[in-house]
Amino acid sequence: MTVQILFAAKEERWAQYEAPLRRALEGAGITDYVLSRDIAPEAVDYMVVAPNGPVQDFAPYRNCKAALNLWAGVENIIGNPTLHMPLARMVDHGLTRGMVEWVTGHVLRHHLGMDAHIHGQDGKWRKDIPPLAEERRVSILGLGELGAECADALRYLGFDVTGWSRSQKDLPGIRCLAGEEGLAEALGTAEILVLLLPKTADTENVLNAERIAQMPRGAVIINPGRGPLIDDDALLAALDEGRIAHATLDVFRTEPLPPEHPYWAHPSVTVTPHIASETRDETASRVIAENIRRGEAGEPFLHLVDPKLGY
Ligand code: NAP
């Protein structure tokens, strides 16, 4: 039987993904297939989706065996009441490695105090020697696909790494914590805090005024997770008071971040435009093809989202 695969993401993504998907499908041994942006809903076996794509009503796709998300974050699709098929999110080698590079780069910027030399070319011979990484405590909230890899890379560089997740983890060389007490400990020791949690009902405003107050004075916050993890007013107040020395933010409640938003002009905030990491078409296409292969072979899908947990 011909496998019918609907590509339900924006048009520019079709141009980007069509050829890599065809290569990956053939690499996975799927040769009898249709891959198109236009297939009658009841004929669709699988759909490649993006939350901002053309399909918002999943009900007519009643024979669809799985929706395969192009992105890691699923908060804009998992709550869709018409989504009746399993949803797999993106876990992609390229996406993960990109995040590791972005996170280690920004942690090292703050750890080494690079800004003093990049912005401070004023003739003063500032000879402040930073501590070694092993004397710097970094906490990561979220020890999933991305958080665990970032924790491992930071540990490899020598940082003293603590991680926090919903379920208790056991990762070599990382102090793994869970639960409310674990969160207090992870925050209380965080000279640099990295947020790599998904946006769910439980994680919204996880970094509120009370929790920011638990962090050491002068700590740095780095958020490549999702904007709503942070209570923006609480963060701005902590930055204004100098309790938080700097925030490097890649994600926001409203994206693009509106030009009038106080983050843009704040001297202690670095805004990056949701570029921490991107799904890479060649490697991501292989993940999608592998899930289609699994579906056809009756094997369990990879990276399924738990609708109850929302991630
Ligand atoms: P993941 O594998 O699902 O990991 C999520 C982690 O968060 C897990 O460790 C999970 O705990 C933990 N978690 C979830 N809810 C929690 C809660 N209520 N309390 C404590 N811990 C909780 O996700 P991922 O692939 O690492 O991606 C993480 C997020 O990064 C994505 O959801 C997305 O928002 C963001 N992201 C951003 C970019 C960017 O360019 N800025 C790119 C890709 C992804 P358990 O391990 O116990 O389940």
Brief summary of the model shown:
The chain is α/β, with parallel strands linked by helices.
Secondary structure elements and pairings:
Blueprint: E1 3-8, H1 11-27, E2 33-36, E3 46-49, E4 66-69, E5 87-88, H2 93-112, H3 114-119, E6 137-141, H4 145-156, E7 160-165, E8 175-178, H5 179-188, E9 192-195, H6 209-213, E10 219-223, H7 232-240, E11 244-249, H8 262-265, E12 269-271, H9 281-297
Parallel strand pairs: 1-2, 1-3, 3-4, 4-5, 6-7, 6-9, 7-8, 9-10, 10-11, 11-12
Bound molecules: NADP nicotinamide-adenine-dinucleotide phosphate.
NADP nicotinamide-adenine-dinucleotide phosphate binds at residues 72-73, 95, 99, 142-147, 165-167, 196-200, 202-203, 224-226, 250-251, 274, 276-277, 311.
How would you describe this protein?
- With about 300 residues, the protein is α/β, with parallel strands linked by helices.
- The protein has 2 domains: about 5-90 and about 280-295, NAD(P)-binding Rossmann-like Domain (Rossmann fold, 3-Layer(aba) Sandwich); about 95-270, Rossmann fold.
- The protein is built from 9 helices and 12 strands.
- It has helices at about 10-25, 95-110, 115-120, 145-155, 180-190, 210-215, 230-240, 260-265, 280-295; strands spanning about 5-10, 35, 45-50, 65-70, 85-90, 135-140, 160-165, 175-180, 190-195, 220-225, 245-250, 270.
- Strands 8-7-6-9-10-11-12 form a 7-stranded parallel sheet, sandwiched between helices.
- β6 (about 135-140), α4 (about 145-155) and β7 form a beta-alpha-beta unit.
- The radius of gyration is 21 Å and the shape is elongated.
- It starts with a strand and ends in a 14-residue tail after the last helix.
- The model has no long low-confidence stretch (mean pLDDT about 95).
- Bound molecules: NADP nicotinamide-adenine-dinucleotide phosphate.
- NADP nicotinamide-adenine-dinucleotide phosphate binds near residues 200, 202, 203 and 250.
- This is Glyoxylate/hydroxypyruvate reductase A.
- GO terms for molecular function: NAD binding; oxidoreductase activity, acting on the CH-OH group of donors, NAD or NADP as acceptor.
- It comes from Roseovarius nanhaiticus.
